[in-house]
Design goal:
Strand content: 15-25%
Number of helices: 8
Number of domains: 1
CATH superfamily: NAD(P)-binding Rossmann-like Domain
Helix content: 40-55%
Number of strands: 7
Structural class: alpha/beta
Shape: globular
Order of helices and strands: EHEEHEHEHHEHHHE
Length: about 240
């Protein structure tokens, strides 16, 4: 049964990643999360991994495979931001964000694809952002790393699509998280005014789209970008 499949969510100890892991647990999947620190939600296996380090990813995957079985669904969610205007952005501000958000995705997808090819089944979901296609002042590094995931997923689809493997991108807009809760009320109002839905999403609304894309119902969807942004980035 599909719901007994093994799922790995990178960066599943907080925010959207945590909500995604919780949703998979609720739907009966066997779920592991990677975290640099902290623990994943109840009912998940937490493994330590640094997505910028291929050896650490290999060790984490091996631990999950030994404990739960081959990873059939991968959600590449781990990401960082180092926001600042282009003129002030250092080489490290740029390189470290790209190394984590894009390089990290490359490393985990490459490692996951081995087992998926053997099983002739796989679901790869890359967590991008509305900012990836919409752009955002002060986020040249982040937006570039997130828009790159579209070309990544589409190339993976062309390479692996004939083996029962799909690769899709979910692009969340503004989500109710600890970070958005800390924004001044005036700023929150301004953001909401630009969103046709006039509200932020819950993290679970993103998680619902991710679990659906991972299900048998979405077997013929690949290389798609699914916005979960209340209409903010329409036409992108």
């Amino acid at each position: 049964m599909s719901s007994e499949r093994v799922v790995l969510v990178t960066g599943g100890n907080r925010g959207i990643g945590r909500a995604i892991a919780e949703r998979f647990v609720r739907e009966g999947y066997r779920v592991a999360v990677t975290a640099r620190s902290g623990e994943g939600p109840e009912g998940t296996l937490t493994v330590r991994a640094d997505v910028t380090d291929a050896a650490s990813i290999d060790a984490a995957f091996t631990e999950v495979e030994t404990t739960l079985g081959p990873i059939e669904i991968l959600v590449a969610n781990a990401g960082i931001t180092k926001d600042t205007l282009l003129m002030r952005m250092s080489e490290d501000d740029f390189d470290s964000v790209v190394a984590t958000n894009l390089g990290g995705t490359f490393r985990v997808v490459k490692r996951a694809s081995k087992g998926m090819l053997k099983a002739r089944f796989g679901r790869i979901v890359l967590i991008s952002s509305v900012v990836g296609l919409y752009g955002s002042a002060g986020q040249v590094n982040y937006a570039a790393s997130k828009s790159a995931l579209v070309g990544f997923a589409r190339s993976v689809t062309r390479e692996l699509g004939a083996r029962g493997i799909t690769a899709n991108v979910v692009a969340p807009g503004f989500i109710e998280t600890d970070m958005t809760a800390e924004l001044p009320e005036v700023t929150q109002k301004q953001y909401k005014a630009s969103i046709p839905a006039a509200r932020f999403a819950t993290a679970d609304e993103v998680a619902g789209v991710v679990t659906w894309l991972s299900s048998d119902d979405a077997a013929y969807i690949s290389g798609a970008v699914i916005p979960v942004d209340g209409g903010l980035g329409m036409g992108h």
